[in-house]
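Researcher: Next entry in the queue.
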Amino acid sequence: MKATTGKRPFALTRNRLLTIIALAAFAVLAIIANSFFDAFMLRVFNMCAIYIVLALSLNLLNGFTGLFSLGHAGFMAVGAYVCALLTMTPELKEMNYFLVPIVPWLRNITIPFLPAILIAGLASAFVGFLIGAPVLRLRDDYLAIATLGFGEIIRVLITNAQPITNGAQGLKGLPRYATTFSVWVAAGLVTLFMVLLMRSSYGRAMKAVRDDELAAEAMGINVFRVKVTSFTVSSFLAGVGGALLGHMITTIDPKMFTFMLTFNILLIVVLGGIGSISGSVISAIVVTILMEALRFLDEPMNLIFFKTEGLPGLRMVVFSILLMVMVIYRQRGLMGNKEFSWDMLQGLFVKKGRKEGDHV
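Model: Structure for this entry, 360 residues:
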């Protein structure tokens, strides 16, 4: 007992030290990226952070609560539009709303980015609560179809609410508040929130509902309340991700928030591991970089044996095949439901070293 208690503080200290070193190294990388990366590379780098937020928000539903939802793009749209309307200046609103004037009660409202993004998240959470309260009584495929329908309904409402959202024209010239610092701080805070949530009693209740609803209810867990809370929190995080996305690319329109956006996020969650925070973070970075690196597949290619005139969408075909292969051969994804730890990394190297030593 004494030997065990003597080793544990050292392990904790070592792990904390390694975590601090890793965070410091990443901070240096972010500073270098912000200073020396060109506009395209910096945009891809920042998109990784936004997709981390979005992947974790969807994994909270699909992975940790067992709710198969496909309406994430709709909640992103709510957050993006609310934050944009709150941060735009009256002059900028007048420039955008040249066909139909904006409603008077929104014309002169301009607030800072931080409260605006929080209000945007709360607005998405409110919409998620209104949708989740009746829909979460459904299960499995019925829930997925219902949430997919609500996501499309939100997009159609945004398109037709021209005095509020400017309709199909969208909003352009948004302030570029989503800087490298802000998006990665948001990604770090959401990751920390997810870690603390999953270690709490409420996180364990979510996992219990995911594993067996009847057993969870027999243990005294209010299954419906857990589902609604998870859906609402996930909608809040999706709204924050949508607001960051809008203020990074400085333009939004309803065509951005289609089912394909939800599919991209779902792809990240499945490849990373449904029920793994570490897997979502790693997969968000890898998939985001690959999505940009493989853009040449959509363009005309001059290969040795044949030429292609350009096949738009071929990049997504490759990702779909990758998803199929992952589902067939590694259904649990990259990390499964496990989390990254320094001990696991050390175990991989030690195991590899032993194999090499045995071979020699």
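Model: Strands lie at 171-172, 251-252, 301-302, 307-308.
Researcher: Noted, moving on.
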